[in-house]
Amino acid sequence: MIKVSVLIALLAGVITPVSNAQFQFLGDKTAISLSYDDALVSQLENAVPALNSHGFKASFYIIPTSQAIKTRLEDFKVLAKQGHELGNHSLFHPCSGSKLHREWVTSEQNLDNYTPERAIREVLIANVFLQAIDGQTQRTFTPPCFDTQAANKDFIDRLKAHFVAIKGVGNDNGQSVLWAPVGVSGQQLIEYVKGVPQDVRLINILFHGVGGDHLSVSSHAHSQLLAYLAANKEHYYVDSYINIMKKAANN
Ligand SMILES: [Zn+2]
Fold first, then answer.
1. In angstroms, rounded to a whole number, what is the distance separating the alpha carbons of residues 177 and 202?
2. Which of 108, 164, 179, 232 has the smallest CB count inside 10 Å?
3. CA of 179 to the centre of ligand 1 (A)
4. How far is CA 13 from CA 77, 138, 187, 228, 244, in A?
5. For residue 48, what are the domain limits?
C-alpha cells in the first residue's frame, strides 16, 4: 500500500505531469479526477454512495489480490456497472524497498527484486483480471508508489501501449497536479482545489481510505469536497480518469 513517505511527498504539493494531453475540451473549466486506490471496503461503504449521490464518476485503482476483492467482489462489479472506472494498480502492489521509509515493503513485494519483464507481466495479468470483472478492454494505470523502475530499469515505457493513460509519469508541461490527502478537513480539500494555479487543467485527488482503512480522510471531509464540486459545476468537470484522458486525447 502507498505509505507515509509517499504521502509526505504528495502532501508537499508535488506537481506530477501525466501526459501530453490537450485539455481544450474543458473550455474554462478545470478537470477533477477523484481516485480511490488499493481496493478498500471503506471506499465501497462511504465514497461510492457519496459519488453516486452527485452523479460523479471516479476511478478505483484495484489490487486484485487484496482482501476487499475477495470479500466484496460483487460490489466492485456493481460500481463498474455504475460507470466508475476500475483502474490497474498492478497485481501485488510492488514498490521499491530501497527508497526512504519503505521498511514496510516485503522482499516478495519489493520492486528492486523484480525484473522489468516481471513487473510488466504482473500489470498485464491484472488487466486480464479487471476485464473479467468489468468487461472493459481499456483502462488507466496508477503505478504503485509511483515507482517506475524494476532493478533500476524503466518498465513503464513498454506499458504505455496498454493503457489510455498512466498517472504520474510523462510530461504535460505542468497542466496537472496530483495530491493524496490524508487526515485533512473538508475545508482543506476545498482550499486545495481553489488554490491550484489557473493554468492547471487537471487536478488529481488520490484517496485511500474514506472514513476508515489506511491513509484515510473522514467521510464528512470527503462529502464536503464533493458538495463543493457539485455546487460549482460551472468551474469543475468531474469524471473518471479514463474519461478525462480519452477526451483529452481526442481533442
Ligand atoms: Zn496504492
1. 7
2. 108
3. 13
4. 33, 29, 17, 21, 21
5. 4-250
Grid cell in block for residue 4: 507515509
Nearest to 109 by CA among 94, 96, 88: 94
In the reported structure, the alpha carbon of residue 7 is separated from the centroid of ligand 1 by a whole-number distance in angstroms of 11
Per-10-residue mean pLDDT for the chain, 251 residues long? 45 41 88 98 98 98 96 98 98 96 95 97 98 97 97 95 92 88 98 95 97 96 98 98 94 76
Q: Distance between CA atoms of 80 and 72, rounded to whole angstroms?
A: 13
Which of 135, 137, 140 is closest to 164 using CA atoms? 140
Kindly state the cell numbers that stand for 232: 460549482
pLDDT score recorded for residue 21: 54
Q: What is the CATH number of the domain that holds 82?
A: 3.20.20.370
The structural domain count of the chain equals 1
Distance 103 CA to ligand 1 centre (A): 16
For residue 28, the CA-to-ligand 1 centroid distance in Å is 32
**pTM metric for this prediction:** 0.91
